[in-house]
Amino acid sequence: MGSARPVPGTFCLVLHSHLPWLAHHGRWPVGEEWLYQSWAGSYLPLVDVLKTLAAEGHSHLLSLGITPVLAAQLDDPHCLSGMHHWLGNWQLRAHEAAMNGDVDLGRREHRLAATALAQFETHWRHGAAPVLRELVDAETIELLGGPLAHPFQPLLDSRLRRFELDEGLDDARLRWGTRPSGIWAPECGFTPGMETEYDDCGITHFMVDGPSLRGDTSLGRPVRAANVVAFGRDLQVSYRVWSPKSGYPGHAAYRDFHTYDHKTGLKPSRVTSRKSAEKAPYDPELAAAALDRHVEDFVATVVERLTSESARIGRDALVVAAFDTELFGHWWFEGPQWLAKVLRALPAAGVRVGTLSDALAHVGDPVDLMVNGRVVARGEDIGYLLVAEIGTPLSSFDAQVVEHSSTVLSLELVSSRRQ
User: Fold this and answer.
1) pTM to 2 decimals?
2) What gap in Å lies between CA 238 and CA 321, rounded to an integer?
């Protein structure tokens, strides 16, 4: 859709959606509140962005992973009823903020709540499955599946791994009308033999973290002799958005995640100080200006990375930027707006955008994901790369945190001999 000179290679955006089972586990401040906040802040806005872009003629926008645990809650009648109630309560809290004297906050939150409530009542009352089916049928997205209970697979017996994965993929087919051929494995965990299990279940591709491919993520890599391709997250590009030390969401103009107005539970501040009492009021105009700068920066980073990597390897390269879905909206309030702008700006800059299925055109030589006889995995939620010796009893592990780079930490589980 863009008129700029074509950039070599392909850019893939991968979003991973997961929450633990929260239904019937209380409401505020924990339990279902987490589900409803993520639903309102991330899932509703993301679907709206995707529908809007699809109506503009865009397709193959991203690969969206949704774990069976989360998918079940997004279709559950109890959760649907609770979400409808939560959205109505959001409107009431906005009115309360206005009556307490913060008219700007109340007006802004009322508009957000009214929009979310209208979207939910129009499109979501029968759950997420019909919404996602529409996006899949229109080829707007690729859906990624996963094992049924989202377990850390390397610790399971191979028979249980096969059962979990097969049931998880069948659950996806029941809900979405299609059995996914790609997955985001829990914590990107991998151990030898899993590639054969993936192949047997009809999986053609899966995600790993960048270090699992020795840091070279410019191509997908078949795993050993199996007909299964591992795609690695490009840390240089992904960390423009999210890293343990920096990233766009921490900019002072954006809405602060941590600071609440305790009378209403709304968030009135922007990121300006470590102390809540010293944070400045949120200003949408400042946030919009920062957003445009960060869209421009990200697009330039992708263009440079694709160009340099393609030149380095002598063929069209691949850049995979991968994030948790809940980063966009729930954590980073402006995230869905950023996604919409980026997914328009990349094609306009000459970048080919595709899904991981499309990226199967960018495959290199086979790789052994083992590193010196170890199992590799990724733990984004705790910010560590997990490395464990094969066959070592868990009871014999000590945890030693070591620095992996300026932005990546590695938690190496070192076997210790007990005297």
Assistant:
1) 0.89
2) 5
